[in-house]
Design a protein that fits this description.
Largest sheet: none
Number of strands: 0
Structural class: mainly alpha
Distance between the termini: 137 Å
Helix content: over 70%
Strand content: under 5%
Amino acid sequence: MTVRTIHHAATALALVALAAGAALAQGQQGGQQGQQMGQQAQQQALTAAQQRRQQQMMEQMQSTVQRMQQLQLRAQQLAQGAQAQVQNRGQMTERERLMVGTCEAFEQQTRQMHQLAQRAQEMIQSNEFQRDQVMQRDMERLRTRLHTMANEMDESLKLMEQLRERVRTQTPRPD
């Protein structure tokens, strides 16, 4: 073998190694691009799912706010009815006095619950809270609690309405 042949063989081997390295790099680059595209698609799907959950939570919170407002109106009507029931009489019984005071307290509580639900709704809609997944999870828990509070208040108002009706029908009328 001549030096020239060895030189050609070494050059050929170097070219083959260079081509293999380039092909390997290109393959890795293509794999990385494919992986990046897969990650981007996955991230977009995750973002879309988060946006759907966020939208759903906002809609549920809006529903809770509206329900709290309805409860507030019911409590207000209950308190006004209890007050009107005794207003035309000069003297109110202990039972009527307690009923009026309790109905007024329910009215105040439902007003505060409505305000609380409105503030929570503002938090849910805030970009600051939307960007933080931990805060979103906590806000969902708060929304669920407010929904439960609305259910409990609804049951309490039903009981108070029944009690008010009983007091109204059982209170002796002045002659």
